[in-house]
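Structure tokens please, single chain.
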Amino acid sequence: MSGVNQNYDYVPTVEGEEWRNEMLQALQKSAKPEPIRLACMKPVPNRPPYFAEEFHGRISREEVEELLTGKDNGSASNGRYLVRESNTFPGTYSLSLAYDGKINHYKLFYENGFYFTERSNDLTSKYSNIEELVGDIISLYRKLVQMQGQVELRKEKRSPSTTITTKPHNFQTHHYKHPKWCDLCGSFMWGLKAQGKKCSDCGLNVHNNCEKSVKGECIKAQLVKERKKIPDKRKTSTDSRTNYRESVISPWVFKTQCDYQESCVRFLNHLTLKTSLFDVEGINPCYCDNCCHDVDTPLCKSGDPPQTYSLPLGWSRFRLVSTENRQTHDVSNKWNVAFLSLHPEEVDYVLDVKLNPDDLNQHVPKPLIKFTPSIICADYDAARLRYVDQETKVNCAGQIVLQVYIEPFSYKVMMRPGGGEEIDPYFKKESIYWVTNQMASVVPFAILVKTIDATYLQM
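Here you go.
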């Protein structure tokens, strides 16, 4: 409706008719906006012949906003527009349009009898008059506002059973029964009692000194969803000791016993390792806190003569497939057990080349490889790889350690260089490493995987 100022922002109130006024205002707000030309009622010098009363000459943006919003109510009706000449670039023109409480400015062009903006300069977006151009822009804005409203509505309709509370962490001194690593700095939490602090709400574990470095608030999300009766793809099978759930995470098919081991499988999937490396039908034990809550002394012995090594508490184990060469050795009872720290992206290389005696050049010096019987030492040396868990969408960090049999007397004992503090209460640093270059005396039999929530982890 060109030349008519249809401002419906004010509706007179009559006593007893408030509901009518509220309904009228709601109808006016929901009505489809139309172009409202703000006419210039004074003569404008050098007005181009293809512009009419909507042209206001050379005025500033501040004057435009004052004209479109009005001096009295300070708000502009949707669809009100005018055309002006640019102060900065004389001879160029701008279309100013009010919508949803904002003033939008577009470069305006006229060519061969058609109007268009720089955002719509293709042949299908040229208009024979300005009112059609403004109407098309208004329709676009209206669709965007409707889409935004639908998004907000969907947010409001989130399940009421999902509650998210945000507050400071509630750290309490905690006595960890198993080896524990700080979720902030990633270092081992030393001691037998009161090793650190744990948030009673979200479960964040930190050193006593790291508590003050934790940034951000504690976000505790409790998701209680009503699961639809959909056939579960995870089939259950019964073992003489444990009930296992079969994971169907492609391309892996492992029998897993807890959610933590499921997350470790997803990390293996992230690394895209070959499925043929693993004994997917075998029993792959998990050593997380829930699966090994009754372990008093986290130590075992193996070999002849026997040597002590750590139980891999906090890790999940996935057994490797035995080869014919490995089956010729009766290693499980006579050889010692140790750990080799790996970078997660080098697993294939280490298994196929570095530990394969058949691939080593006899004319090249054999490399020295450093093992350890301490899982804490192996954890220190294992590189962390950040990734996003594809199921939980949480930022995580994963580590890989190779568990091997190593022939007695084929290695030399070496101390851990560096500071004077011990890193494992069960192993002296003077003998915490075993070093060998005899690859035929090393038989990898399992990969250990560890995953942690890396939301607060400093790497």
